[in-house]
Amino acid sequence: xxxxxxxxxxxxxxxxxxxxxxxxxxxxxxxxxxxxxxxxxxxxxxxxxxxxxxxxxxxxxxxxxxxxxxxxxxxxxxxxxxxxxxxxxxxxxxxxxxxxxxxxxxxxxxxxxxxxxxxxxxxxxxxxxxxxxxxxxxxxxxxxxxxxxxxxxxxxxxxxxxxxxxxxxxxxxxxxxxxxxxxxxxxxxxxxxxxxxxxxxxxxxxxxxxxxxxxxxxxxxxxxxxxxxxxxxxxxxxxxxxxxxxxxxxxxxxxxxxxxxxxxxxxxxxxxxxxxxxxxxxxxxxxxxxxxxxxxxxxxxxxxxxxxxxxxxxxxxx
Length: 318
Ligand code: HPA
Ligand code: ZN
Hints:
By secondary structure, the chain is α/β, with parallel strands linked by helices. The chain has one domain: Alpha-Beta Barrel (TIM Barrel). Helix content is 46%, strand content 16%. It is built from 13 helices and 8 strands. It has helices spanning 16-26, 35-40, 47-57, 64-79, 92-96, 102-119, 136-146, 171-179, 195-206, 221-229, 246-258, 278-289, 293-306; strands at residues 3-9, 83-90, 123-131, 153-159, 183-188, 210-213, 233-237, 263-266. β5 (183-188), α9 and β6 (210-213) form a beta-alpha-beta unit. α4 packs parallel to α6, α7 (136-146) runs parallel beside α8 and α11 (246-258) crosses α12. The chain starts with a strand and ends in a 12-residue tail after the last helix. Hypoxanthine is lined by residues 9, 12, 47, 54, 159-160, 187, 189, 268-269. Its cofactor is Zn(2+). GO terms for molecular function: adenine deaminase activity; metal ion binding.
């Protein structure tokens, strides 16, 4: 089945093998020597321990070629699963704060996107991820840096640690992003307190086009009605991980489908979540709760309908 993915972090596709290779090439010390040892260390209990792993993994990404190889490996891998279109978050602040230029990051990613489109036929677009545990000033700076590459980026998202960092903290940044013509999305993570309140802010204050995760919509009748009426897409990630058992997420997904919500299945950070890419996640989810063929097809249709295809500005974007 041709598939689209709407919620994946390109830095979250850094497989242990590539991390080891880049560490050797760039002379970076790793906490473990082999890819197997690294993979075994990918254990986390909550969002903040996950994010610590995710950010420390990025340390090996230094050059344009590194970002190219990271992105091309992901695109090649999901192309083999018949993913024909993907929208990838990238987190420039996590790199500029280490002294890596915005241009280095985005040029490597873009070169991989173009090559994958030419050689494999897979299409992709980029979402600028704002790190919500950094300041609104830093977010605005990242947004301003992105404007030089406006044609390469379709939307702006909000990720990283949600605790104490509500959507309204970035109200002006997202107003500016909207004025620049970007599509808007924000993570409303299931592992956080205040998720219902944060989803409300996304809908009523920020005016997002999509919500990443958003499971707690299901806790509130008013939100269910509102999200359904607006056909607001929720990008669920039903990958198994220790703090967030897949069967629970899969059950929520099924309920969302039964409620007629515009829900999709995505992989988020596949390299850190036991290397589950889109086909495996869909299959595991389908098996966990017995989704019908029609429901699986509906998930794929929802993703294509909610994709920001046609929103890109660049000559070679969709
Ligand atoms: N949640 C929040 N921020 C993130 C994630 C996530 O799952 N992955 C990468 N940044
Ligand atoms: Zn995410």
